[in-house]
Amino acid sequence: MKVLQQSVDKLNAILKVEIKPEDYQNKVKASLEKYRKSAKVRGFRPGKVPFGMIQKQYGKSVLAEELNKLANDSLYKYITEEKLEILGNPIPTEDETFKGDMENPGDFEFSYEIGFSPKFEIPISSRKSIEYFAVKVDEKLIANQIEDLRRRYGKMESTTEVGDKDMVMGLFRELDSSGEPKENGIENNSTISMEFLKDKKAIKSILGMKVDDSLVLDPKSVAKDDKDLASMLGIEESAVADVSKKFKFTVNDIKRMELAELNTDLFDKLFPNQNVRSEKEMKEKVASDLENMFKTDSDRLFTQTVYDFLMDKTKMTLPESFLKRWIKLSNEKPIDDDTLNKEFDTYLKSMKWQLIQSKIFKENDIQISNEEVMDFTKSLLVSNYAQYGMPAPDDKELTETATRLLKDKEQVNGIYDRITEKKLSDYFQANVPMKEKKLSYDDFVKKASKK
Fold first, then answer.
1. Would you state the CATH architecture of domain 155-258?
2. Residue 387 vs residues 77, 162, 391, 402: alpha-carbon distances, Å
3. Nearest 10 degrees: CA dihedral of 19, 21, 24, 25?
4. In sequence order, which residues have a C-beta less than 8 Å from that of residue 151 and are 6 or more positions away?
5. Start-end ranges of CATH 3.30.70.1050 in the chain?
6. How sure is the predictor about 41, in pLDDT bands with cuts at 50, 70 and 90?
7. Given this model, what pLDDT does residue 96 score?
8. Has residue 336 got a pLDDT over 70?
9. Cα dist. 24→20, 31, 374 in Å?
10. Arithmetic mean of pLDDT, 57-83
């Protein structure tokens, strides 16, 4: 057998596989002998069917099968030995060029298209720094976090006047056009959470109200959405569109969260076995926890920023015509040209990133070992147990559970993706020059949302 490479351009080539009779004759004969031994033909004992009869009945299909195997084996052996970096797999040429006569077997030649992986450089340079956005953990952020923690362990108590974070319990009563309670109108006791209101006019009108005070308002102004409005008024969500804008709201009770006291009891609940004994130490611990929490977010945002930079600045050309044909031929379900053209840009973007990622891994000898996959899977299981307040089982049981989990192809792909992302993040932070920029929490959230 012989494989010849015919260049088309820098990104495309034709591989021609030449197969001679001596390459396939013995294999075809051996296969037909197997058929002869197992074939059941009326008038002949098993294994005694004449070879010519078997050849006449199965000869072409067996020949085609053996030729296909030989062609494929030759292709991939050639690609490996010549160290060709190709995209996808070889596919028959568009005109499906085939030379040979199945009726009178002799020499055969099969032609395949291949698309080469492009040559490109990763544009990471010591001269070009990329912004690393970090949250500025200031006194305001620390104070807000401490207040949230104190609220978590606080107590709800009734108070006399509505404040900006209170829960106001009262009766909604629908009014008619004259401002009187509507006959058979909507009436429902519900709660307004001042903390989550967005309508400034509604907030201003409710602040300072006391028990038994009333006001006329549009219930939509104190509801988050249609679902919330339906729950507030005790009606079906489908009826929300027809709800009146005129309701009387009468305050029945006002609940305020009394923050937990800053004492050792609270410190022990928040930071068990961490020896926090004063408000100052609590502030320091909260600041440290916030720094660690936001660093994870900053690292993720930095990875995304580097990804955007590499996708924008890495110059490469892909064999698009070949890839379109390869996608159509290899897709499990038929795909028409219109659908392919609509999705092709997304596919090219994915292919480009895979090539960039592969080059980074190859040039820096970054690998993912089976041991790493197992350890990562076990750590995920431990986290899941902790999430439900359960102690993790011993290592033997963890290993058995992880092994079962890793038999699921979808789970394995997800785990490999997460490990890959972590290794890329570590590589970027070690090799891409950073220019740190401190942002307020709100600005950081806006920046992350855009990414």
1. Roll (3.10)
2. 50, 36, 10, 17
3. 170
4. 257, 259, 260
5. 2-116
6. confident
7. 67
8. yes
9. 7, 11, 45
10. 94
Per-residue model confidence as pLDDT tens digits over 136-167:
999 999 999 999 999 999 999 999 999 999 99
Residue 167 CA to residue 64 CA, distance in Å, equals 79
Q: How far apart are CA 370 and CA 406, in angstroms?
A: 11
Is domain 2-116 given the CATH code 3.30.70.1050 in the classification?
A: yes
Amino acid at 73: D
Q: Which amino acid is at 305?
A: T
pLDDT at 125: 84
Asked whether the predicted pLDDT for residue 308 surpasses 80, the reply is yes
The H helix count followed by the E strand count for the chain is 13, 12
Separation CA 231–CA 221 (nearest Å): 14
- What backbone torsions phi and psi does residue 106 show, to the nearest 5 degrees? -150, -125
Mean pLDDT for the chain? 93
H/E element, 127: none
What pTM, to 2 d.p., does this model score?
Answer: 0.72
Residue ranges of the chain assigned to CATH 3.10.50.30: 155-258
Structure token digits, residue 277: 């004994």
Positive or negative, the Cα torsion across 280, 285, 288, 293?
A: negative
> What's the Cα-to-Cα distance from 372 to each of 360, 383, 418, rounded to whole Å?
19, 16, 12
Phi, psi of 13 (to 5 degrees): -155, 165
In the numeric block, which tokens belong to residue 1? 């057998």
Element at 445 (helix H, strand E) = helix 441-450
